[in-house]
C-alpha cells in the first residue's frame, strides 16, 4: 500500500466517523400542524359630528379590504384556497357580478398580469367585507 492510499483511507474513515457522530447526536424535531385562525367579521361603528345640526351620528361601515397579492397565472383552484372564509361567511359576488356557485366561478377565473379580482363576502350576521386579489 502506498502512503497516499493510507492517508486517503484515514481521511475517509475520519469523515465517516464524524458524520455518524453528527447524525447520532442531532436534536429531535417535531412537526406540529395548527389550524388557520378563525375570522369573525363584524361591522364597525363610525361616529362623526354633523356641523350643520350640532349633533353626533353613527353609521355602520364595511370592514377593511383584505388584499391578496399573487403571481400571475394562478389557477382558480389555488385562488379558492387563498381566500379564507369564516364558518358563517360566503362569497356573494366576483367583480360585482352575483355568483350562485362560488367554487365554480373561482375555478373558471384566469388571473392575468397587472389585473385584479374583487370578491365580495357576506356573513350570516349581515356583515360584509371585500377581498382584492392582485396579480403582479
- Cα gyration radius (Å): 29 Å
Structural class comes to alpha+beta
Strand content: 25-35%
Query: Which series of helices and strands comes N to C?
Result: HEEEHEEHEE
Oligomer: single chain
Task: Report the principal-axis shape.
Answer: elongated
CATH architecture of the domain at 63-135: Roll
Q: In which range does the helix fraction lie? A: 25-40%
Tally of helical runs: 3
- What is the end-to-end distance? 64 Å
Short description:
The chain has 136 residues and is of the alpha+beta class.
What tags apply to this protein structure?
two-stranded antiparallel sheet, 136 residues, 7 strands, 3 helices, Pdz3 Domain, alpha+beta
Write the layout of secondary structure elements.
Layout: H1 3-24, E1 44-50, E2 55-61, E3 66-70, H2 76-82, E4 89-94, E5 97-98, H3 102-107, E6 116-123, E7 128-135
Parallel strand pairs: 3-7
Antiparallel strand pairs: 1-2, 4-5, 4-6, 6-7
Description of the molecule:
The chain has 136 residues and is an alpha+beta fold. The chain has a domain at 63-135: Pdz3 Domain, CATH 2.30.42. Helices cover 26% and strands 32% of the residues. The protein is built from three helices and seven strands; from the N terminus they run αβββαββαββ. It has helices at 3-24, 76-82, 102-107; strands spanning 44-50, 55-61, 66-70, 89-94, 97-98, 116-123, 128-135. Strands 3-7-6-4-5 form a five-stranded mixed β-sheet. The protein has a two-stranded antiparallel sheet with strand order 1-2. A hairpin with a 4-residue loop joins strand 1 (44-50) and strand 2. The longest helix has 22 residues, at 3-24. It is elongated, with a radius of gyration of 29 Å. It starts with a helix and ends with a strand.
Amino acid at each position: 500500500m502506498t502512503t497516499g492510499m493510507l492517508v486517503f483511507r484515514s481521511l475517509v474513515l475520519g469523515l465517516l466517523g464524524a458524520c455518524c457522530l453528527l447524525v447520532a447526536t442531532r436534536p429531535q424535531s417535531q412537526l406540529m400542524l395548527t389550524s388557520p385562525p378563525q375570522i369573525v367579521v363584524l361591522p364597525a361603528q363610525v361616529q362623526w359630528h354633523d356641523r350643520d345640526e350640532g349633533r353626533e351620528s353613527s353609521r355602520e361601515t364595511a370592514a377593511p379590504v383584505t388584499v391578496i397579492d399573487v403571481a400571475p397565472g394562478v389557477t382558480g383552484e389555488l385562488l379558492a384556497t387563498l381566500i379564507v372564509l369564516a364558518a358563517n361567511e360566503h362569497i356573494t359576488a366576483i367583480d360585482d357580478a352575483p355568483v350562485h356557485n362560488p367554487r365554480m366561478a373561482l375555478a373558471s377565473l384566469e388571473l392575468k398580469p397587472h389585473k385584479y379580482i374583487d370578491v365580495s363576502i357576506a356573513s350570516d350576521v349581515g356583515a360584509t367585507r371585500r377581498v382584492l386579489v392582485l396579480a403582479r
